Amino acid sequence: MPFRPRYTGLIEKYRDRLPVTDDTRLISLGEGNTPLIRLNNIPKLIGKNVDIYVKYEGLNPTGSFKDRGMTMAVTKAVEEGSKAIICASTGNTSAAAAAYAARAGITAFVLIPEGKIALGKLSQAMMHGAVVIQIKGNFDVGMQLVKDVAKEAPVTIVNSINPYRLQGQKTAAFEIMEELECAPDFHCLPVGNAGNISAHWMGYKEYNDHGIVNNLPVMVGFQASGSAPFMRGEMVDNPETVATAIRIGHPQSWDKAWACQKESNGWFDECTDEEILAAQKMLAMKEGIFCEPASATSLAGAMRDIKSGKIPEGSKIVCTLTGHGLKDPDTAIKQSTSPMMTVDATMDAVKKAILDNLVH
Ligand code: AN7
Asked: How far is it, in rounded angstroms, from Cα 239 to Cα 141?
């Protein structure tokens, strides 16, 4: 059997569609190429004839879609001679920035809202050696500070206002179209800063413009109710949600996301924290897929719109699962209802535990 070239990351794969040259030193951890998984059980539970696929971005090297943008942003920062990067983050961007900076041998400064990022993400930023600056304020405050400080210090911003981030992230749409051999009818995503929905729309339009596919999806963005500026039609100053990744009230890609909604004939909607957690649990229990709360917002919203018929039967739907469930073990354990018991270390006790819990 012939050897196949190993997959070495999305810049290498899509170098013709990304702003790199043959001389660019690529800072990569093998990101991208994530599974597109067709849901088997949830469509039956909803009772509708739909094809739902989840794009499991939690399987990127640092456990979220941010790696797609970060490989590009750090590659370009290094190419431009930068020795330090900086970001504000609800957690995943800081984890990715920390890892790619370590890979490149440069410094990462990360501003995070004190006490409001999931434990897995904090452990990543710390373990990769980022300078972790906790602020007594939320993401939006941190973002403004990063913009201000970058004017006075020699640091490259790697939040999604850095245009290379969206270039990297558009490759998720490429992968979906290659696998489906078309664009889906609907693409649902969780929305925080709205960078990712904007990047996907760029990717879909690029393949459509170049005749690689000849359709475009309807883009649907879901926010957490307590943190839903796109629903309110204005910025939200004190966002709150259990889905801390999308606890963002002042989205940086506001105009891009509205353009995406208009051009694709899509919509925004909101999900309550209860709906988000229920979808996260359903995915874990019925499909074996563990994503973090924010990610489940896409499926929570999609399920509601499928049930109501807003997304019609016969549709092909992709939901992006932006981050891995292991990012936020606290929230998972808190809401789990799986039987857990402590018994004596005897055959009798273990046998009883099994027989009591056998589901026939
Ligand atoms: C799991 O890490 O903004 O709408 O600072 O981590 O492109 O912002 C995270 C965002 C969805 C929202 N799901 O994406 C950060 C940060 C997860 C996320 C989003 C985020 P955008």
From this structure: 12
Residue 308 has pLDDT above 90, yes or no: yes
- The verdict on the CB of residue 92 being under 6 Å from ligand 1 is yes
pTM greater than 0.85 = yes
SS3 track for the chain: CCCCCCCCCHHHHCHHHCCCCCCCCCCCCCCCCCCEEECCCHHHHHCCCCEEEEEEHHHCCCCECHHHHHHHHHHHHHHCCCCEEEEECCCHHHHHHHHHHHHHCCEEEEEEECCCCCHHHHHHHHHCCCEEEEECCCHHHHHHHHHHHHCCCCCEECCCCCHHHHHHHCHHHHHHHHHHCCCCCEEEEECCCCHHHHHHHHHHHHHHHCCCCCCCCEEEEEEEHHHCHHHHCCCCCCCCCCCHHHCCCCCCCHHHHHHHHHHCCCEEEEECHHHHHHHHHHHHHHHCCCECHHHHHHHHHHHHHHHHCCCCCCCEEEEEECEEHHHCHHHHHHHCCCCCCCCCCCHHHHHHHHHHHCCC
Q: Tell me, using a 6 A CB cutoff, whether residue 196 lines ligand 1.
A: yes
Confirm or reject: Cβ of 93 under 6 Å from ligand 1. Answer: yes
Report CA-CA distances (Å) from 202 to 74, 83, 123, 212.
20, 29, 32, 14
pLDDT digits (tens, 9 = 90+) for 260-300: 999 999 999 999 999 999 999 999 999 999 999 999 999 99
Task: Say if residues 100 and 201 touch (Cβ distance below 8 Å).
Answer: no
Q: What whole-number distance in Å separates Cα of residue 247 and Cα of residue 228? A: 9
Cβ atoms of 213 and 318 closer than 8 Å: no
Specify the residue with its C-alpha closest to ligand 1, atom 20.
245
